[in-house]
Amino acid sequence: MTLLWWWPQYGDLIPQLLGWLSCVVTAYFMLETNTKFAILRTRTQMTAVLYLIMMAVCGFLHPVSNGTLCQLCLIIAFFCLLHTYQRFHTELHTFHAALALSIGSLFWPPLLWLMPVMLWCQGGYLRALDLRHFGAALGGYLLPYIAWSTGLAIRMYYAILTTSIVDQLSAQEYFQPLLQHAEGIIAPFHEPIIDLSPTLHDQLLSHPVECTALVVMGLIGMTGFIHYLRKSYDDKIQVRMYHYSYMTVQAVVAVWLVLQPHYFHQLFPLFIAASVPAAAHFIALTHTWLTNAWVVLGALALVTVAIINISLGFNV
Question: Average pLDDT of 19-29?
C-alpha cells in the first residue's frame, strides 16, 4: 500500500509525506476504536486494513489536503464520542469530540454542519446527551474560534500601540480572515443544489479517476450499509448503536455529495471514513457463496481503481 502511495505521483515530497502521515494516524485511531469498542465481534482489524486499501488506491487523496485532514478529525471525533455511550459525566469526551470536529472546520468551514448530526447520534443512539453534555459540546465547538478571535484581537491592539494613526487598519480588516471563514461556513446554502448544467457533465468526463473511485467506493459503502441493516440483530445493542452512528454520518455525507458534487475532494474522504465500519463488518463476517463472490468482485474493482490511477494519473 505504501508503494501505491508513492508510485503514481511525481509531485512535491512534502505534501505526499504529510498525506501519508495523516492516513497512518487515521488508521491508528480506527484500529484503536475497533479494539476499544469491539466494532467487529471477531479478532480482526479489517476496519483499518480496508481503510488503508481504499486510501491507497485513490491516488488523488494521497497529497495532504483539507479533505484528508477533515477525515482525520472526524475519526478522532468518533473515537471520543463512542466513549459516551449510556454513561454519565462524560462531558470531557463530548468536549474532545466537538473540539476535534471544530478543528477540522478550520481546514474546511462547512464541516461544522456535521455538528447537529453528531449531536443527534449522541442523543438518539448513544443515549448520552443532556444539558451538561450539550454545554460541553458547545464549548468544544467554540474554543478554536474563541482562540482565533482572541489572537486577532491581540494582534489588532498591538498594531494600534505600535503604528501611527495613518498606518492603522480598521477592525474589520484585522478580523477579515475570521469573517471570510464565517462566509465559508454558510457557503453551502448559497450554492446550487444538484447542478445539472452541461459544465458539470464535462467536469465528470474530464475526471475519470475520481468518477471511477466514487462508483467503486459507493458500491462498497452501500453494500456494507444494506448488509448491516439486515444483519445487525447478530450484534449487541451497544455495537449496533456504534454502527448506526457511523451509518448516519455516511448517509448524510452521501446525500450532501450528491446534492453538491463540487465539494467532492472534501466530502469523499469523509464518506470513506464513515463507510468503512459497515463495509468491514460485511467483508469480515459474510459467509455465503454469493457474498463471498461479491467481496472478490469488490477487491478486483479496487485493483482496477489503482490501475487507473497509475495509468492515467490524477489532477487535484
Answer: 93
